[in-house]
Amino acid sequence: MSPSQKKWDVSKIQEWPPEKHEAGAVIPEAGNAVNYQTGGWRGERPVRDADKCTQCLFCYFYCPDTSVIVEDKKVVGFDLEHCKGCGICAAECPADAIVMCTETDFEQNGGNE
Amino acid sequence: MATRLAPKELVTRGDRLSGGHRLCAGCGASIVVRNVLKGAKDHPLVVGCATGCLEVSTTIYPYTAWKDAYIHTAFENAAATISGAEAAFQSLKKQGKVSKDCKFVAFGGDGGTYDIGIQSLSGALERGHDFVYVCYDNGAYMNTGFQRSGATPLGAWTTTTPNGKVDLGKRQNRKNLTAICAAHNIPYVAQASVHNFRDLIAKAETAFETEGPAVLVVLSPCPRGWRSDPSQSVEMARQMVQSCYWPLYEIIDGRYVINYDPKAKKIPVLDWMKAQGRFGHLFKAGGEDILQRLQENVDREWQRLQALAQLGAVETPAGA
Lengths: 113, 320
Prior knowledge:
- The complex is a heterodimer of chains A (113) and B (320).
- With 113 residues, chain A is α+β, with helices and mostly antiparallel strands.
- Chain A has a domain at 42-113: Alpha-Beta Plaits (2-Layer Sandwich), CATH 3.30.70.
- Chain A is built from three helices and four strands, in the order E-H-E-E-H-E-H.
- The longest helix of chain A is centred in the last third of the chain and has 6 residues, at 103-108.
- The radius of gyration of chain A is 18 Å and the shape is elongated.
- The mean pLDDT of chain A is 93.
- Chain B is an alpha/beta fold and 320 residues long.
- Chain B contains twelve helices and eight strands.
- Chain B has an eight-stranded mixed β-sheet with strand order 2-1-3-4-6-5-7-8, with helices on both faces.
- The two termini of chain B are 13 Å apart.
- The mean pLDDT of chain B is 95.
- At the A-B interface, helix 1 and helix 2 of A face helix 1, helix 2 and helix 10 of B.
């Protein structure tokens, strides 16, 4: 795999004159959607019990938002900047190690899972 | 036949579609893409994508979720674009201007494949380009607000097949894209589903390794259009496969192989239809006839598929 590693600063894109845009509306930075946060769509967040988790990785493969963080072949957490809270991970977890918790409950608990 | 790999191995292949795309919560399309791209291993890719949910949501300017070279095409020409890119690559290779290897893949929804893009797909398959075409089938034009497509099942509600005094959802049966592609006598056609990601990745791997055209038709749940719970997307697909509405099978050089036979565990289509609001009206008085026709269609198609697999005389694995 050799994706473009070029960085493309779009922070002031609203002020760009037409000629500053790439010809053909090319987006020169591959995978830069990662800089766009969709976590705010979420009403419920996944909470994982690491003791119950068997590391089957199903949640990782089923996540529509590439939001299950895997390190060294192990699930270590969720990317809450992008997780939309669909709850597929919790529904599919064969060990019942993931539950969905509403964001308001989460806040009322002082951010404790 | 595709061999299934362990999740621990597959996870090391990395992600070629980033988060931050704007597909709905619980969308099946990105599950399809993430897993299909794992089947490309570490080959460089050129991706084409027909207009549709996937295209508009993953490439909202100035962002793209794709980590590979990506071409946005119109609704009707994803297969034409990717076959052109492939032909250009073969020419450059012949001229000695490139030495690297590269794979080509096009994605389209059911609207962009069954309906609008079918002529360009048919042409590309017939010309024999070395590419993979993936149709993520959610059974309607979901991106524009649920209009019926050639993939919409009989009786399903969409905004253009409403249920009321005259009609109870779509009047017609859906067409069989897998069979249409197979009729092109190409080396590899497979039907897959998001719920069985190992089968899906294995099929994608076979498709990418196949020399010549390969097509994957993948069931892709749409919680908005199906009026189903987003957390149940994968479960919906599982039940639809278990009912034989969406059998998992491959056609390898014309030989049919069924990858999953539920046998005694086969469930009625009613089981999953009840959980999808697009069929809600069929459970009121007057819907029995359509429900019965749907079940009969599924049973007949499943029997036909089993007969085709018998012709291939290939062993059918139990319990995939």
